[in-house]
Amino acid sequence: MNTENALIVEGVRRFRGALHSFNLRWISFGSPSAIVTSMALIVGLGAATAAKATVLASLLIIGIADNLSDSLSIQIYQESERMKQRQAFSSTAANYAARFAITGSFIVLLLTLPTRAVVYTCIAWGGFLLSGLSYLLAKARHVGALSDIGKHLGVAAVVIFLSNAIGLLIRSFAVSP
Q: What are the boundaries of each domain within the chain?
C-alpha cells in the first residue's frame, strides 16, 4: 500500500474511532429544543409579519443567551449528580456547541433565502434535523425509528401550529402607529 492510501485508511480509522466514542447524550438534550424553538420562532414571527431583523435578533438571543443558560442548568445538574468535572464540562460544552450550531443553521437560512421561502425552508430543515436526531437515538436505543420520528415530529408540529396561531393573533390585534 502506498503512503497516500495508508494516510486515507488511517484517517478513516480515526474518524470511525471518534464516531464510536461520540456520546449521543451530549447533544440529545438541547438539540431538539434548539430545532423546535428556532422553527417555532420563525413561523410565529413570520405570521406576525415581523421584519427579518427582528427574527434575526430573536434567533441570536436564543442561540446565545437561552442556550447558554440551559447549558448552565445542565452543568449544575450534572455536578449535583456527582459527575466527574471533566465529563460534566465536556457534555455541557458539546450540548452548547450543538445548540448554537443548530440555531446558526437557521440564521444562515434566514439571511440567505428570500423572505417568502424562509418559513417553509426552515420547517423542512428543522424536520430533517429532528428526524435525523430521532433516528440516531432510536437506533442507539434499539427501538423502532419511525415511531420515534413520528412522535417527535408530531410534538414539533403542535409547537409550530401554536406559534403560528399566536403570530396570527398578534398580527390581527396589532395597532399601527
A: 24-173
